[in-house]
Amino acid sequence: MLVKLAWLCSHESYQPETLLEHAVLAEQSGFDVVTGADHFHPWVDDASAASYVWSWFGAVAHATSRVELATSVTAPLFRYHPGLIAQAAATLDRLSGGRFILGVGTGEAINEAPLGYEFPGYKERIARMDEALDIIHGLLAGEKLDIDGEYYQARTAKLYSPPTTGVPVWMAAGGPKSATFAGQKAEGLITSVKDPADALERVIRPYREAAAARGASTTIMATRWVVLAGSDDEAWEALAAMRGLRAPGRLEVADPMVLRERADAMDRREILEKYTIVRDLDQLAEAYKPLVHDVGADYVAIQVASADPADTIKQIGSQVLPALRDWADS
Predict the structure, then answer these.
(1) What's the CATH number where 242 sits?
(2) How confident is the model at residue 203 (pLDDT cuts 50, 70, 90)?
(3) H-type helices in 64-199, by residue range?
(4) pLDDT of residue 281
(5) What's the number of domains the chain is made of?
(6) DSSP secondary-structure letter at 75?
(7) Quick one: which of 15, 44, 182, 197 could link to 260 by a disulfide (CB 3.0–4.6 Å)?
(8) For the purposes of burial, counting CB atoms within 10 Å of the CB of 147, is it exposed (0-12), middle (13-18) or buried (19 or more)?
């Protein structure tokens, strides 16, 4: 099967001008897709960044010519009206020549609470997503919308700079409920894979079953966080901006200072053990092999923390991407 390989530009780790260089380098190095997360706050406050991914994607669209561009992910539920996300996606579709993919998810408090929004439980968030995707799909399809929903309203809303191609909407899911919802309402699935068998059973199977029930085709992007480091000290350095991601309460905390304090109060080994750490490129390729060989993903997002990301992009392009494509074909 043909697999497309993505590079994650970590907006929680590097400033936008550096990430723009990484995106261009990823295209030059053979990646098929560049992804970026939509964060207002990062995971720690001392070695981090949090630029506006929508402005950044506009720059990437101008600076590249081949790679697809995907939010991984944005939450069109609180600080954005879903109509604004549809407008942003349509604009990027036009600026990129049809290369944009809209990845959505139900969000995290660290991006909503700082702006004064309450961050409710899953039941309300998935209900909001249901309404939001109706609006996004309708606007992207060229409809003029009058909606009086429980969470969102629209009055003669229409995109006057519509997409020139179809913008696929992919939904992030980590369990069967969100996976089933993705199969019912989205054109693709984004899921983080640590245990391939578990991901196939709990996420990918319910997604495919729900999509099949409505006669829809499926697209799967499998992701995995990996740390490339020659030692644990180097791994800790590489994870400086991401260490708060594994601290307790990350879905509820608004202040990255709190997550940094909690992470630094933990034993380093406890945080490092929550990541897949590899010592060389051969081990890195093996870490992603199950995603292309066992999971059978259509897209595989390579999310690697390292001390020298620019060199890592080039090395993965020359040594890892060919191996992953070979495994996908075997």
Answers:
(1) 3.20.20.30
(2) very high
(3) 82-96, 109-112, 122-140, 176-185, 196-199
(4) 98
(5) 1
(6) -
(7) 44
(8) middle
